[in-house]
């Protein structure tokens, strides 16, 4: 397989890197994949021998000056501008109508480019991308307007450096003194100012039901070193937010904590390669009030030992583990 990477003007990608968050935040897959392809053995500099064409447009680095979150209202116009540019210089887009071109859409609802699901569904996938291939973090097991395009569900970005640093200080096979862990947004009143219910009330229910339960380590505020808390935990909750996916899934697996997926019908990344049922626990959204009971049952059987052993094997076969072995 050969991939040609379009050399676009920096306004479409590297200019955004002036903000260091662009290459580190949870939507940074678009940057990481671009960088990986630039040095990959599958890259070709001859577009005529390419099987696929990668379009490196960073749309998630326009951080709001109001709340600091990525603002992606410009995404459609930026992508359309890039396509117009390279399709006027190269024949490949017009030759295939974009069917061999690859984009990354690493935000809440993928290639619909909106943070709120009802608006994203109404907008749908941009017409210009409908024949293309999209690598996106969003995926569900049912028909959804935001995946009505050929797509591959990828994991959200988690910095390998941050995981390596955490493991060096808190080994994945170290002592785990936290039984159930979650740190993140848990609204006491789940109805957002937009009138929508955040997390379908799941996180609010977790807080109401288990805040004060000594078995649950729940925190609502940010903490830069939260990966150290994951490394100390047995179970790590991965509830939906606005979208079903969460970086906690990747961090939990990398740090040896059993991920507890609470997001009905989520399509997990790389399903054909990763046996998620063997390294995670799934809890239906309607059963979130029974979390303690469900996890006690897992812990009381051989399920927890089996999950932990398979997580350990997954870690030892990972790039992070191999890099640590190389460094030492």
List the helices and strands and how they pair.
Elements: E1 3-5, H1 29-38, E2 52-54, H2 75-89, H3 92-96, E3 101-105, H4 117-123, E4 133-136, E5 150-153, H5 160-169, E6 178-183, H6 202-210, E7 216-219, H7 226-231, E8 233-239, H8 247-254, E9 258-262, E10 281-282, H9 291-300, H10 303-316, H11 319-327
Parallel strand pairs: 1-2, 2-3, 3-4, 4-5, 6-7, 6-8, 8-9, 9-10
Helix pairs in contact: 5-11
Task: Describe the structure in your own words.
The chain is α/β, with parallel strands linked by helices. The chain is 31% helix and 13% strand. It is built from eleven helices and ten strands. The chain has helices at residues 29-38, 75-89, 92-96, 117-123, 160-169, 202-210, 226-231, 247-254, 291-300, 303-316, 319-327; strands at 3-5, 52-54, 101-105, 133-136, 150-153, 178-183, 216-219, 233-239, 258-262, 281-282. The chain has a five-stranded parallel β-sheet. Helix 5 (160-169) packs across helix 11 (319-327). The chain is globular, with a radius of gyration of 21 Å. Mean pLDDT is 91; it is low at 319-328.
Give a short overview.
The protein is of the alpha/beta class and 328 residues long.
Estimate the global geometry from the Cα principal axes.
globular
Helix content: 25-40%
Main sheet characteristics: 5 strands, parallel
Structural class: alpha/beta
SSE order, one letter for each helix or strand: EHEHHEHEEHEHEHEHEEHHH
* Percent strand: 5-15%
Strand order, biggest sheet? 1-2-3-4-5
User: CA-to-CA gap between the ends?
Assistant: 34 Å
Please tell me how large the radius of gyration is: 21 Å
Poorly predicted segments? 319-328
Individual helix count: 11
Overall strand count: 10
Nearest-integer average pLDDT = 91
């Amino acid at each position: 397989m050969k991939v040609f990477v379009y050399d676009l003007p920096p306004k479409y990608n590297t200019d955004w890197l002036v903000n260091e968050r662009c290459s580190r935040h949870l939507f940074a897959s678009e940057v990481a994949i671009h960088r990986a392809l630039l040095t990959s053995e599958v890259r070709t500099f001859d577009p005529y021998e390419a099987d696929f064409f990668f379009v490196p447009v960073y749309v998630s680095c326009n951080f709001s000056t109001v709340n600091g979150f990525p603002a992606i209202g410009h995404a459609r116009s930026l992508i359309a501008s890039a396509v117009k540019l390279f399709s006027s210089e190269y024949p490949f887009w017009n030759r295939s109508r974009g069917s061999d071109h690859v984009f990354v859409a690493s935000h809440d609802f993928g290639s619909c480019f909106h943070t709120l699901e009802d608006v994203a569904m109404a907008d749908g996938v941009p017409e210009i991308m409908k024949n293309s291939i999209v690598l996106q973090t969003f995926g569900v097991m049912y028909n959804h307007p935001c995946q009505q395009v050929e797509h591959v569900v990828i994991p959200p970005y988690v910095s390998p450096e941050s995981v390596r640093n955490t493991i060096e200080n808190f080994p994945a096979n170290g002592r785990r003194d936290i039984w159930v862990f979650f740190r993140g947004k848990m609204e006491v009143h789940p109805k957002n100012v937009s009138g929508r219910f955040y997390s379908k009330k799941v996180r609010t229910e977790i807080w109401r039901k288990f805040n004060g339960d000594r078995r649950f380590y729940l925190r609502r505020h940010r903490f830069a070193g939260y990966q150290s808390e994951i490394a100390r935990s047995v179970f790590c909750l991965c509830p939906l937010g606005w979208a079903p996916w969460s970086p906690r899934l990747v961090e939990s697996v990398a740090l040896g904590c059993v991920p507890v997926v609470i997001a009905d019908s989520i399509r997990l990344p790389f399903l054909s390669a990763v046996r998620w049922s063997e390294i995670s626990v799934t809890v239906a959204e309607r059963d979130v009030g029974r979390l303690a009971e469900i996890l006690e049952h897992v812990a009381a059987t051989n399920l927890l030992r089996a999950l932990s052993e398979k997580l350990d094997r997954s870690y030892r076969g990972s790039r992070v583990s191999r890099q640590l072995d190389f460094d030492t």
